[in-house]
Write a structure and sequence with these properties.
This protein is 46% helix and 21% strand. With 307 residues, the protein is of the alpha/beta class. The chain folds into three domains: 75 residues, Arc Repressor Mutant, subunit A; 105 residues, Periplasmic binding protein-like II (D-Maltodextrin-Binding Protein, domain 2, 3-Layer(aba) Sandwich), CATH 3.40.190.10; 103 residues, Periplasmic binding protein-like II (D-Maltodextrin-Binding Protein, domain 2, 3-Layer(aba) Sandwich). The termini are far apart. The longest helix is centred in the N-terminal third of the chain and has 29 residues. Strands 3, 4, 5, 6, 7, 8, 9, 10 and 11 form a nine-stranded mixed beta sheet that branches.
């Protein structure tokens, strides 16, 4: 504790900046410091912690393993401090503050739409700042202190030590195509028939990519030809609606776009799921009341089943 008490916010900001810029001059400029002043700050924090955080190389400032770890914690401290200031300002104005929520796309058309409809109908509550991304990006953002909670899936290779997972929903998959696709009017279909068409696939190692690979492998078939990989479900939907391409979407997302008339479901059932998604919550002893209220709304929406 005595060591930590000697660290200053400016030092933490410098370390957090250097991990991004890898350039002392640029970080000094960004923080309104002189380069000698930035050099002094870096030496002070390294002396305080007793380790080297960066090495000077021909390519710039390369972080050591200590530097990477310290920068991650520095970003969290700075983010939480900024959030504290924002929350105090909001309370002084009589507001309820801001909750930073992350979500995978599957949660948006059904669960989150119902949650936000309820919250807005009540006419009270915090401002919710929503970020939609993939689970790996959401977990990384939570570890960096950039999100308060998220709806997503655990990712094995990422640090989940400070995050707990509460499963909520098991998501099925749908094979989809343009509403005018020749396969839509056919019922006696198999993966062998679908294998002859070109597909849009999600990048590895996404759960949807893994599911489709397993489905074709179980059928003894090679993976379909694909020349486009994207995690963007909007891009996927637009592309297949204007072509003869095929793709796989979470059923909740597919249902939304099918109702618009852009796409239709191909009559081939996939014998797999992409696992449960649920709440990703920080391991905190005293959760924020505004976050707890939003969590309860999400739990209620998930418990009531699909709309």
């Amino acid at each position: 504790m005595a060591t930590l008490s000697r660290l200053r916010f400016k030092q933490l900001a410098l370390v957090a900046s250097l991990i991004e810029t890898r350039n002392l001059h640029n970080s000094a400029r960004d923080l309104n410091l002189s380069q000698p002043g930035a050099t002094k700050l870096l030496k002070e924090v390294e002396r305080t912690l007793g380790v080297d955080l960066f090495h000077r190389t021909g390519k710039g400032m390369e972080p050591t393993t200590f530097g990477v770890a310290v920068a991650r914690h520095a970003r969290t401290i700075l983010s939480e401090t900024a959030r504290l200031k924002s929350q105090v300002d909001a309370m002084m104005r009589g507001d309820l503050g801001t909750v930073r929520l992350g979500a995978i796309m599957e949660a948006v058309p059904d669960v989150l739409t119902r949650v936000f409809s309820t919250v807005m109908a009540e006419g009270a509550g915090p401002l919710v700042n929503l970020t939609v991304s993939t689970s790996d990006h959401l977990i990384a953002a939570m570890n960096e202190g950039q999100l308060d909670l998220a709806l997503g899936r655990p990712v094995e290779h990422l640090d989940m030590g400070n995050i707990r997972f509460e499963p909520l929903w098991l998501e099925e998959l749908s094979i989809v195509a343009a509403a005018h696709h020749p396969l839509i009017s056919q019922n006696d279909l198999s993966l062998d028939t679908l294998q002859r068409f070109e597909w849009i696939l999600q990048p590895r190692p996404s759960p949807m990519r893994t599911s489709i690979e397993l489905a074709f492998a179980r059928a003894g078939l090679p993976l379909p030809v694909n020349r486009l990989e994207t995690a963007s479900m909007l891009m996927t939907t637009v592309m297949i609606s204007r072509s003869d391409l095929l793709a796989v979407l979470p059923r909740s997302v597919a249902k939304f776009y099918i109702e618009t008339g852009l796409i239709a479901e191909v009559a081939v059932q996939l014998d797999g799921f992409i696992g449960r998604y649920g709440l990703l919550l920080p391991n905190k002893d005293e959760p924020d009341p505004a976050i707890e209220a939003l969590v309860r709304q999400i739990q209620l929406a998930a418990a009531s089943g699909p709309s």
